[in-house]
Amino acid sequence: MSKLHPVLTIVVPCFNEQEVLGETTRQLTETLQQLMTDHLISSKSSILLVDDGSKDQTWNMIVKATINHRSVAGLKLARNVGHQSALYAGLEKAKDRSDCVISIDADLQDDVSAIRTFVAKYLDGYDIVYGVRSDRQTDTAFKRTTAQAFYRSMQKIGINLVYNHADFRLMSKRALEELCKYKETNLFLRGIVPLLGFKSTEVAYTRKERHAGNTKYPLKRMLSFAFDGVTSFSIAPIRFISFLGMLLFMCGVVTGGYALMQKLTGNANAGWTSLMVSIWFIGGLQLIGIGIIGEYIGRVFLEVKGRPKYAVDIDLYTNNDLLEKHSSQRDFQPIKEQKRLQRE
User: Fold this and answer.
1) Do residues 204 and 132 touch, judged by C-beta distance below 8 A?
2) Does 337 score more than 60 pLDDT?
3) How far apart are CA 145 and CA 133, in angstroms?
4) Cα 68 to chain center, whole Å?
5) Is it the case that residue 96 has pLDDT exceeding 80?
6) What Cα–Cα distance (Å) separates residue 114 from each residue in 133, 203, 209, 309, 311?
7) Alpha carbon of 281 to those of 241, 246, 272: distances in Å?
8) Which of 67, 145, 290, 301 is deepest in the core (most CB within 10 A)?
9) Can you give the pLDDT at residue 185?
10) pTM of structure
């Protein structure tokens, strides 16, 4: 492997992406071929499509792409494990056969033309290149506001994130080797990668509208993802509950002193409303505190079991012999026949 002509692998996690995958494969293969033609990367470079337990025709399309394009390979996970684990699976597979790896989502919202700049930055000596959105014009007002609030909140509690960066990035081989030493079950790669500490830079790009299909990150999953990020890197929520508990205790001391004075002076009145409000308020805070502590305990429970993050069903990346087996299926006969006629 050479620094001058690095072997590049583009890792693309896919989940129910049949509407967009054909166009995604076309654009990425054209980009990869152009980089090879310009002698910026090695001819051994490739695209790795990771099927995260899709229920549609995504895997069949990946197999067809692998047959039609020498530079495309597929990895099928045994079940849906989530975006972060599927991406990690692709990165882990690619690191041993690559000098650098670029991760990009399948929806074509990230600008594939920025890949050339990523490679140029890698050749300049950077181990990590972050793709950073130059604006959020394609987002709704709600998503734009909540995203900015999320990044600001993470910074305030001491979590180092690259602002407006998702998972569009380049990582060198040695950065990937260090990343794969992180074995936690609750993956939050946007927080882990900056912890590596290698020389990094940013490349600004304009994020596009989704080319086709529906987003795989509705509000519920976005909130879950944000909460995973907080609990994976900070105990700030527990500290906040502790601070709030101390504050309420001090308020209780003051209120108790006031009530005692009223009793001693004979001015005490029945206060059913204030009593009920206090009970519900304190009870609610206690349940919130117990819930937050429970979330951390649950994550500790998942980590100590040490279960693998994913299981590979079919590997067409490192085991090319499997391609013949899957290409013999009825759905792929027209492709095989076309390739036979071309040889003749």
Assistant:
1) yes
2) no
3) 15
4) 29
5) yes
6) 11, 8, 16, 30, 32
7) 14, 15, 14
8) 67
9) 80
10) 0.75
pLDDT digits (tens, 9 = 90+) for 233-272: 666 777 777 777 777 767 766 766 766 676 667 665 666 5
Residue 216, CA distances (Å) to 16, 48, 76, 261 in order: 9, 20, 18, 60
Query: What is the per-residue pLDDT for 272?
Result: 53
Mean pLDDT of 21-45: 95
Q: Are 238 and 296 in contact (CB under 8 A)?
A: yes
Residue 236 near residue 158 (C-beta atoms within 8 A): yes
Distance of CA 110 to CAs 37, 240, 279, Å? Answer: 23, 36, 50
Determine the average pLDDT of the residues in 158-167.
81
Give the integer Cα–Cα distance in Å for 147 and 163: 10
Q: Are the beta carbons of 116 and 27 closer than 8 angstroms?
A: no
Beta strands 8-14 and 46-51 are: parallel
The bridge status of strand 72-77 relative to strand 100-103 is: unpaired
pLDDT digit string (tens) for 43-94? 999 999 999 999 999 999 999 999 999 999 999 999 999 899 999 999 999 9
**Sign of the dihedral through C-alpha 110, 215, 24, 7:** positive
Strands of the sheet containing 46-51, edge to edge, are: 200-205, 128-133, 165-172, 100-103, 8-14, 46-51, 72-77, 312-315
* Placement of tokens 């001693």 in the chain: 264
Q: How far apart are CA 256 and CA 253, in angstroms?
A: 5
